[in-house]
Structure formats: structure tokens, C-alpha cells
Design goal:
Number of domains: 1
Number of helices: 6
Structural class: mainly alpha
Radius of gyration: 14 Å
Number of strands: 0
Length: about 130
């Protein structure tokens, strides 16, 4: 699926029977940031991911802090690398493929606690350097 189609399907409501993997999260963050900037990206992506979690019966798994962390990181990588596509960014910054990257900055207790699931919570292990 090309980027435009991927974005349209995501915004319309990702099909429940289709997986949505870590790379898909990175790709959607990239595309929404590209079109709307990092500030609006969280306001666009967050509600769609929440709706996806609800539709799949896993609403408690949505995490606002995690969503905003990845959006901030993708925005930073876009600016720092000048990459034009998410695949190019991943080539240049392979750690983007590590879906557990946030645990370098947040303890599991804080990241997966109730506060981080509903609002941005500052890291408790290590500050984010960007």
C-alpha cells in the first residue's frame, strides 16, 4: 500500500483483522508529521490509536506517553537526518526498529502505569536528549 493509501486507511479506521506493527506506527508518525507537523501529529494519531485499541478490545493498552515519545523521536530524526522516507530514516538510525527504546528513559512501572496511559509523563530514568 502506498503512503497516501496507508494514511487514508489509518485515518478512516484500521481494519480490526489487519495487524498494526511497530513499523506501521513509525510510518504513520512519519506521514502525519510530514503533513501536519509534530505538534498536531499527536492530536491526530492518538485518537486513531485509541479507537483502534477500543475496536480490538484492548483499550487499556493505549499509552499516550508512548505515542508522544515516538512522535517526538520521529520528528527529531526527520530533522536530524534529512531522510525523505521512514525506511531511509530507519536505515540511518537503526535503533528506531527497537520497539522497547522508550524503556531507556522510563521505568516499566511509570511507562505502563495509569498516568502515562492517559497523559504525557516525563521520564524517570534518563532525560530525552531532544
Amino acid at each position: 500500500m502506498d503512503d497516501e493509501q496507508f494514511l487514508r486507511v489509518f485515518l478512516a479506521g484500521w481494519p480490526n483483522d489487519e495487524p498494526f506493527h511497530h513499523h506501521d506506527h513509525l510510518r504513520i508518525a512519519w506521514l502525519v508529521i510530514e503533513r501536519h507537523g509534530p505538534e498536531l501529529a499527536a492530536e491526530i494519531i492518538g485518537p486513531r490509536l485509541k479507537a483502534m485499541a477500543v475496536a480490538r478490545g484492548v483499550a487499556p493498552l493505549y499509552n499516550e506517553t508512548m505515542t508522544r515519545f515516538w512522535i517526538r523521536l520521529i520528528a527529531h530524526v526527520r530533522e536530524a537526518t534529512g531522510a525523505s522516507k521512514v525506511a531511509e530514516a530507519i536505515e540511518q538510525v537503526p535503533m528506531l526498529s527497537d520497539k522497547n527504546l522508550a524503556q531507556r528513559h522510563w521505568s516499566r512501572t511509570l511507562m505502563f502505569g495509569p498516568e502515562a496511559r492517559v497523559a504525557w509523563v516525563e521520564p524517570d530514568l534518563s532525560p530525552i536528549p531532544f
